[in-house]
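Narrative summary of target 7.
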Amino acid sequence: MKGMGNMGNMMKQMQKMQKKMLQAQEELFEMTFEATAGGGMVTVTANGKKEITDVQIKEEVVDPDDIEMLQDLILAATNDVLNQVDEKTNATMGQFTKGLPGGGMF
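Modeled conformation, tokenized:
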């Protein structure tokens, strides 16, 4: 029955790790990320849940004859901010999946 103590210990460790994961995820969700394009002409803000929370557009970049440029700047800033969220998520949550079979969640 010596193995049962190890199993109980392992379960406690897993519960502890799961609690830390949930806490890290909550902290991540509360973070704010920001990206700009066009030298600050367009700024897009997102939270850690990958929700866009704000878009700022400087008046001087709004040209009715060149809507495509504005669209490109918005896309660039949006993709950049979402990449930042992905990178932070991978860095934060990756510490919990290192060494697990398949490297994934359990």
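The longest helix spans residues 67-97.
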